[in-house]
Write a structure and sequence with these properties.
By secondary structure, the protein is mainly β. The chain is 14% helix and 40% strand. A six-stranded antiparallel β-sheet has the order 4-3-2-1-5-8, with no helix packed on it. Strands 6-7 form a two-stranded antiparallel sheet. Strand 3 and strand 4 form a beta hairpin.
């Protein structure tokens, strides 16, 4: 499942920082995670289990992703007979499955 991760500034406003300067959401969004996050912030995650719900494998390692780090689910762009179709996005907060 592809998702877009919230920006650092947005998560900092929503959750604040801990004493080490990391984002304090359900999980912990580390400064190291921000450095390896793709520019468009869209990542492919897989079901992981509690307490973090999802995992993300980047080139620099495996990371745990909590639901509150996710902005929205991304649907892929498909090309059919040369025509591009953007399926769009689905708001994560409104359609969150527990």
């Amino acid at each position: 499942m592809y998702v877009k991760i919230k920006t650092w500034k947005r998560m900092e406003r929503e959750f604040g920082l801990d004493k080490d300067g990391e984002i304090t959401c359900k999980g912990i969004f580390l400064k190291k995670m921000e450095k390896v996050m793709p520019e468009d912030r869209m990542i492919d995650i897989h079901k992981y289990g509690k307490p973090y719900d999802f995992g993300w494998q980047s080139a620099s390692g495996c990371w745990e992703i909590s639901r509150d780090m996710i902005d929205y689910e991304v649907f892929k762009i498909y090309t059919i007979y040369g025509e591009r179709y953007n399926i769009g996005k689905k708001s994560w907060q409104n359609n969150e499955k527990k």
